[in-house]
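hey can u check if this looks right to u? its 136 residues, i copy pasted from the old doc so theres a chance i mangled smth
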Amino acid sequence: MRVKRKRPFGLMVILVLELLQLVTWGVFLYLLTIPELDIAVEEILDVSTLAYRIQIGSMLLLLIALPGLWLLQRWGWILLMIQTGISLSMGIWQFFEGNPNYAGMFVNIAIVFYLNQWDVQQLFIPRSRSKGIKRL
């Protein structure tokens, strides 16, 4: 019999925030493809830049990570940590370019701190392995 693990409130908040970020990017990218809107992509962002490509890759990584996070799988935790690291790096890059996103950096730092708490990490370790792990 499989024991069902409960998702903490903080993890649910992270899931909702990251899902909203994905939906926002999805809507944004969809609007760019509608010719009737006549949106000048060049005026909004430079799609040829490395930063844009990294951001799209980060969103794809997030799309893969969220189901794993929902299912409390270790790979979901790892992928979200990688994606959050990429987002933090982009935030630092934007800061030095003179276009800081303080809210985004704050959320990413909060996610890293929350996911690295001992109790939260234990949710993502299989029960058979977590019995032998002792907290220091």
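The two ends are 30 Å apart (CA to CA).
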